[in-house]
Design a protein that fits this description.
The model has no long low-confidence stretch (mean pLDDT about 85). The chain has 8 helices and 13 strands. β12 (about 170-175) and β13 (about 180-185) form a beta hairpin. The protein folds into 2 domains: about 25-145, Sandwich (Immunoglobulin-like), CATH 2.60.40; about 150-290, no CATH class. α3 (about 200-220) packs across α7 (about 265-270). The chain is of the alpha+beta class. About 30% of the residues lie in helices and about 30% in strands. Strands 3, 4, 6, 9 and 10 form a 5-stranded antiparallel beta sheet that branches. The protein has a 3-stranded antiparallel beta sheet with strand order 1-2-5. Strands 11-13-12 form a 3-stranded mixed beta sheet.
């Protein structure tokens, strides 16, 4: 959605018109990485007594319209707060995210007047209906880098194999190889292998197998000094984790800050929090399949 220099049948506070004097509506929009998601902080500045009064009274609200043309993502959020934060899943964005701020009437205002009207509108009263735009802020475009680190492509970082030890009954993680090797007991390995190519089940497998393995690796790294961690720098999995932490968490794997992180939470975010989709699959996916079979 591109903000156009639109004409309205009533005065609107915009940056491109002179319908108002000594008034402004500006929003500072600050996007930040939050793992693979985008956290956007908004700070609105509304310089108009009447519109500020309406905002306090709940007659109008600030509306942020989000749109990503490539994914078809569209969302409009209302708030009465000048400071506002919104997190958007990485899955909803590819390329450019457009954000348009407005002030919109959420109830009818039958005789709208404003002391800050341009002199051409002085003495006039306007009938404002619910949904009418009363102010328009500057559009902000955020370009999202979709070069997602290979950690979300688990085969490139993790190797899941059968444990040659027939007496083993637990999952074992080996981080002393080019990939993180996850060894499963024989029966569990063949169960895993039988469903590993099912796309719908991937979030479940990642939650059960990959995330706990990554927690183990991160905790082991956190126990080591920066120099000891660097000894793993020739391994592909180490480089992938280091890159992901730098890009998505603004954290250097070889810094003290890394050791202070919550490894359980970080591991989930590095794999793009598969638990959300996993529970969705388990609660609806199979159930729907079973219902289809019964029909």
């Amino acid at each position: 959605m591109e903000i156009r220099y639109k004409l309205y049948p009533y005065p609107v506070l915009t940056y491109y018109s002179d319908d108002y004097v000594n008034s402004s509506f500006d929003v500072a929009i600050d996007p930040k990485r939050d793992g693979y998601d985008i956290r956007i902080d908004f700070l609105a500045e509304l310089n108009n007594p009447k519109l500020n009064q309406y905002l306090t009274e709940g007659k109008v609200k600030i509306v942020y319209h989000f749109e990503c043309a490539q994914t078809g993502f569209r969302e409009a959020l209302q708030t009465s707060l000048l400071e506002f934060t919104r997190s958007i899943s990485n899955k909803n964005i590819c390329g450019r995210l457009q954000i348009c701020p407005f002030i919109v009437a959420i109830e009818d205002i039958p005789e709208y007047v404003n002391d800050s009207f341009h002199e051409d509108y002085r003495g006039y009263k306007f009938s404002i209906e619910i949904g009418c735009v009363l102010a328009v802020g500057k559009q902000v475009n955020i370009d999202i880098d979709k070069d997602i680190n290979d950690l979300t492509n688990t085969p490139s970082v993790f190797s899941i194999v059968k444990n040659a030890d027939e007496t083993a009954h637990c999952m074992i993680v080996d981080m002393d190889q080019r990939k993180i090797v996850i060894k499963l007991p024989e029966k569990e390995y063949y169960n895993y292998k039988s469903i590993m190519d099912e796309a719908i089940i991937q979030p479940v497998l990642n939650s059960l197998v990959v995330v706990p393995s990554l927690v183990y690796v991160l905790e082991e790294l956190s126990k080591r000094t920066a120099d000891e961690r660097y000894e793993y720098s020739s391994y592909g999995w180490y480089c992938a984790i280091k890159k992901a932490l730098t890009i998505h968490f603004d954290c250097d794997l070889e810094s003290d800050h890394f050791s202070e992180m919550n490894m359980f939470e970080t591991a989930q975010k590095l794999i793009d929090v598969p638990l959300i989709e996993a529970l969705q699959v388990l609660s609806t996916g199979y159930r729907n399949d079973e219902e289809d079979d019964e029909e």
